Amino acid sequence: MIVLFNEGKEEMVDRLGLKGASLSTMASLGLPVPPGFILPNDICIDYFRDKKLSQQVVDELKEKIRWLEGETGYGFGDAERPLLVSVRSGAPVPMPGMMDTILNLGLNTKTVAGLAERGGEWFAYDCFRRFIQNFGEIVFGVDRAYFERILDDMKNEVGADSVEKLDIKELKMVALFFRGAVKRWGAREMPDDVMEQLILAIEAVFRSWENTRAVEYRNLYRIPHDLGTSVTIETMVYGNLGNGSAVGLATTRDPTTGEKRLSGEYLMNAQGDDILSGARRPRYVRELKDEFPEIYPAFVDACDLLEKHYRDAQEIEFTVENRHLYLLQTRQASRTVSSAIKIAVDMVNEGLITREEAIQRIKPETLDQILHRYIDPKTQVRSIARGITASPGAASGRVVFDHAMAEQFQQSGEGAILVKVETTTEDVKGLAAVQGILTARGGKTSHAAVVARGMGKPCVTGCEAVTVEIDKKIMNIGDLAIREGDLITIDGSTGRVFLGIVPMRKGTISPEFRELLSWTDAVRSLKVRANVDTPGEAKLARDFGAEGIGLCRTEQMLMAPDRLPIVRAMIMAESEEERGEHLQKLSEIQKQDFIEILEAMKGFPVTFRLLDPPLHEFMPTLDSQLMELAVMRSQGIKGEEMENKEMLVRRIRSLREANPMMGLRGCRLGILFPDIIEMQVEAIMEASCALAGSGVEVFPEILIPFVGHVNEVCRVRATIDKTAMKVMEGRGIKVAYSVGALIEIPRAALTAGDIAREVDFFSFGTNDLTQTTFGFSRDDAESKFLYNYIDKKILTDDPFDTIDED
Description:
Blueprint: E1 3-4, H1 13-28, E2 36-39, H2 41-50, H3 55-72, E3 85-90, E4 101-105, H4 111-119, H5 121-140, H6 144-158, H7 168-185, H8 194-207, H9 212-221, E5 230-235, E6 246-251, E7 263-268, H10 272-277, E8 283-284, H11 288-291, H12 296-310, E9 314-321, E10 324-332, H13 337-349, H14 355-361, E11 374-375, E12 385-386, E13 388-391, E14 394-400, H15 403-411, E15 416-420, H16 428-433, E16 436-439, H17 447-455, E17 459-461, E18 466-469, E19 474-477, E20 480-483, E21 487-491, E22 496-499, E23 504-505, H18 511-523, E24 530-532, H19 535-543, E25 549-553, H20 564-572, H21 576-600, E26 605-609, H22 622-634, H23 640-655, H24 667-672, H25 674-693, E27 699-704, H26 710-731, E28 738-743, H27 746-750, H28 752-756, E29 761-764, H29 766-774, H30 781-791
Parallel strand pairs: 14-15, 15-16, 16-17, 24-25, 25-26, 26-27, 27-28, 28-29
Antiparallel strand pairs: 1-2, 2-5, 3-4, 3-5, 6-7, 6-9, 7-8, 9-10, 11-23, 12-22, 13-17, 14-21, 18-19, 19-20, 21-22
C-alpha cells in the first residue's frame, strides 16, 4: 500500500497527491531528491472510516522505515546517528499551506545528542524546540501562543531580539519549557518513542484534511471534499547547518511578469518554515550564483529540466545542506493572470505547448484580473511606506486586522485592506473578504503573496516600516498611527502604501493577451455579446470584441437627470393625449440613442429590451413627498403648487405595490399602456431605417420582458409588428427585425414550447429566474442568509453565480 519515490509515477497524482507524484517524477529523472515514500490518499480515506491506521499499514510503515535506514545509513531512534524525517501532506489538487507538515520528526531527549554530533549543540536544540512546537501544535492541538510566549519571555529575560541571539543553555531551557507546555496544554507527555511519533504525526496530517482552513479553501475553490490527502515521509535535509546551508523557493519564470528568468528567494542557515512565514528578509535566488558557485549550474539545469518535462513554469522547493543540493518538491508555479498569459504564449512560441493547450491553461474566471486598477501616474501623492511587490494591482479600503472585521465591511459594501505582521493559513477566510493585503514581514514567496496572487488581489509584503499593535487595533508607520477603519491604498505593482484613497486607472490588455484571444477566435464556436445601456458602452464593447449586444436595458437611458422629468410627466398624465405628447419627446431621445448604439454595432445584432422596471421606480419616494407635503401645509401654501404636490402624492400611492418585483412591470406595463410599446418600437425602427438608408447594416432585436403566458406574447407582438410595419412603410425602407421573449418566470420556462411558436428567439433573465425559482430575493439573500447556507453546505454555490443544473 505504501509507495517508494522510485516506484511512483507522474500519472499516479490522483493517488499519490501532487507532492508525492512530483517527488516520484524528480527521482525518476535522476535529480537529487532525499529518499522517502508515500502513504497514498486511499489510506487517508480508510483512516477517516476506521479512526486509526490499520495494522497492515503500521507493519508496512515499519518495513519502509527499515528500507530508509538502509538507504541513508542512519537509524530511526538511534542515539548516535539518528534518522529524522518530515511528514508532509499532499492533496491531488493545489491547496497551498492549507494542511499540516511536521519537520524534524525522530528527535527526543536521546537522539538530540546524536544530531548535535552532526551539526553542533545549538543546531540540534534549535531543531528540537522547533519539533516540539510543531508536533505539539499539530498533533495535540496546543495553541501556538503558548510557545511564542515562552520564547518571548526567554528573549526578554536575557535581552535578545531574536532566537539566534540565545545561547545553548537558554535554548535548552526553551526546549524544556516547550515540553512542559505540551504536557500542560496538550494533556500528555511528548512521546519519546519515535515510531509512536510517526504514527501520531501521520494521523494528524490526515486529520488536517478536515481542518477549518482546508475546508474553507475547498469551498472557495470548489474542490471536492472526498479526495483525501496523501502523506509523504521524506528524509530530513537541513538548510540550517551553518553558512554552507540554505533553504529556498524558486520559480522557473517570474510569477508576476511571466518573464523567462529564474526567480524566487532563499535564506541562509534556515529551515523551510522560516521562508514561508516571512519572519526573516530573504535574498533573491539569483544571488545563489555567488553564494554557491559549485552547485548553481546544476541547480539551473535542474530547473530547466523540470520546466521542459512538465512543459510549464515550475515552483521548486530546495535545500542546500553543507553545499549539497537537494530538491524537495516541484509544482506548477503560482502566477498572476497576466503572467500566466505571457508564459502560455511564450511557451507556444518556444515550441513547448500547442495553442490549444495555451488556451486551456488560462482559467476564464480569472481573466478580470487582467484589468487590475493602478495608481494614476498623474497623481502627485507621496507614499507613506514601501514594501515588496508581491501581487499586482492597486486597492483602497478600510484597515482591518482580522477576518471578522473584513467580512463586516464586505457585507456593508465597503472594501477593506487586511494588515498583518505576517499572514498564516488561518487567514484564508479574511483574505477572501478583502480588496488587498499588507504585511510587515515576508517576501514574494510568503504565504500572503502566494495566496493573493492566486486570488488576483493586490498585495504588498515585507513593509518593514509598518508595526502592528493587534491588541490596540493600530498600525504604526513612524509617528503615524493608523487605526482600524481608517482608509489606506496599497499598490502591489510598486510596493507603495498611501494614506487615504488615491486616484486610479483601469488596466490595459497586453500584446500577449491579444495574441491569445486571436487563437481562441480561431477555435471557438461560442459568440459573446455585451450588456450595454448607453452608446459609449456600446463603443467600448466593440473595442473589446463583443459580437453584438445581448441586452440593452432601454429604461436605464431614461434615468438621466434631463430625461427623468419627462418620464414622470408621462406617468402623471391624466389623458392619452397628454401622455402621447410626453411619449413623443421620449421617442426622439431614444431614437438618437438607438442610432448611436446600432451604428457602434454595425453588422452585429442589438437586443433592445422593452421598458421593464415598475413605474414607481421613476417616481420620487412616497416618504420624501409626504415630508414635503407636510412642510408645505405647515407653511400655509395653497393654490396650484399645493394641488400639484397632492396630485403627485396620490399618483405615487396609486403606483405603490406590496411586491413591485412581481407587479406592474415588463410586458404587463405594455399591455396596460400599449402606447409605451409603440413609442419604443417606433424609436427602434426609425433609428434602424435611418441607418439602413445610409448603407449601415443593422440587426435590431426587440425583446419582450417578464412574460409568463403565451397570450401576453401574442398581444405585445401584435403591437410590435403593427408599429414596425407602419414605420417601414412610412420610410419606404425594409429592415429585418426579430422579436424575442425574455424567459425569467418559471411558468414561461415550463410553457416554452407554446411561447416559441410566437417569437424568433429566447433570452434568459437568470437573476429573476433564480429569484422566482428559489424564492430568494436577489437584493436581500446574500446579505441576510445566503452565505450562511453555503457555509453550512445547504448549497454548494451561490445560485446567483451559477446555473442550477438540477
